[in-house]
Structures are given as structure tokens and as C-alpha cells.
Retrotransposon protein
Amino acid sequence: MNNNKRLPHTPSGTRHRIRELAYFHMIHESDIVCRQSMRMDRRTFTILCHLLRNVAGLSSTEIVDVEEMVAMFLHVLAHDVKNRVIQREFVRSGETVSRHFNIVLLAVVQLYEELIKRPVPRLYLNLQNCLGALDGTYIKVNVPVGDRSTFRTRKGEIATNVLGVCDTKGDFVYVLAGWEGSAADSRILRDALSQENGLQVPKGQRYHLQEWRGAANAPTNPNEYFNMKHSSARNVIECAFDVLKGRWAILRGKSYYPLEMTYCKDVDDVDEGDSTYATTIASEDIHYIETTNEWSQWRDELAESMFTDWQLRNA
């Protein structure tokens, strides 16, 4: 005699009603719930779906419409949850969740030109043609066992080394992802500069932010003044990475998903940057890029010029 008891089967009509109710609650009920679920308000979510449809060519399938598949995708990025959690939240099979996540991922990649902000030319007193602040950060990734040695950082974590540049407003103007965690920062920077559509730095315009730090009082020499004027610029890129990781949990811990799926950061720039999701989690940003004598001399001359101008204005 077979004593195994089968779980009761939920009729498809009931599953459909449960799914619709959960979907309405997550996306349409309020901006608060929408932000909690997908890290953006209802208006921004609608704009993203519009871009994915009309720019990236994303379309509904026989069983899932665009809004639902985008919601599943964003929920994974926002909370770093596994497939089975999305199955439960959206009342979908694991195959359906996986297939539509990949469909949206490929569509989001097509929005790179739309979502990455281009720098707006601005004139600075001493920093003309300044592109923005540059820094790197480590993002933990899931890679095959055979590749782990190359992705291992100095702290022993498996991560990818991501280079980012943001403007004075904190909008990312350039992102280069994919380098191994063991890669030297200078090598990544050279790669960014050498690519066909890579990082474009105006010739001779290089402003190093890290070498001189910590003037608590009024500057007494060119180095201190240079540090004071650039500290805000450095804070911009650090805050940009903090807000990014605070908003998307998938970028904070070890991902459940393959390496190729981790490079989804672009979607963050649809929404205006805010500090709502800023986190106090200790970051593993990269704080040093090798210098050359030419760069150091150019920086020192710039610091002297800036300090002289400041002294004349305050004489």
C-alpha cells in the first residue's frame, strides 16, 4: 500500500489570480512598495519598460508580458535572490524565471547608449576639459573553479575589478567591467584607453585625487590646496559606488549567477541618483593607480598654479 500523499494541485485559474494580485501589489499599489521591490518608483519602472520595448526590442511572450519579466529581473538585482524565490513571488516555474531573466538581461545590455550618461562640457577655473572622477571597485562574482585563481583578490575573495568614471553629479559616464580581481589597476586603465570605444581622456588632462589627502585647516602649500579642491571630486565617485551597491544587493555579496550576468549595472542610471540606498557597508574600492614622472610633474605644476591663484584672490 502506498502511503505517500500528493500535495494538492492548484488550478491554473487560481495561480493566475494569485499572480495578478501579487504583480499588482508589487508594481501598481504605491511608489513605496515599488521602490522596496525593484529599487525604482512606478514612473521610472514605466520609462524603463518603454525603453526596453522601443529601443531594445523587448516584447511580451505567450505567457509573460514585458512588465512582469522586467519586474522579475529587477527583483533579482535588487535583493540578490535565487530562482526559487522568484518562483514563489511570481508564481512561475523555474524554467520560466530563468528564460525571461536572460531575455531581459540581453535587452538591458542594448540600452547602454541610452543609460550611460554622457559628460556635459563644463569649464572649471583650473580643471578645464575634466571628464570626471575615476576609481575602481571589486564586485564578487561566481566563476568556474578553474578560473578562480585569476579572479582572486589580495584579500582572497573571488571578484571582478570594475573601473568607473562619474561626473560631478555622480552620474556614471564610463564603466569597464570584466577584468579579473587579480588584474593590476594600471593594466585595466590602459585597456580602457586603448579600446575602440573606450575611455576618452582629453590629451594632457589628468587630475590625480589620491596622492595628497587630509588638510583640515586652511591650505598652507600647493599640495594642501590641491587636496582640498579635489576632495569633493573624489567623494563623488566613492558615493556613486556606495549608492550603486546599496541599491542593488546583487553587487554586494557573492552572486548566485554566472559571471556574464553580473554586468547589469547600466539599469541604475535610468533613475536619478539619490542617497536613499546609500550604505555604510565597508567598500573594497581600489585606491591606487600607478603614476609616472610625466603625470606627477604635470600635477605638481597644476597645484602650484592653483595655489598661486588662490593666494592672489585672498591677499
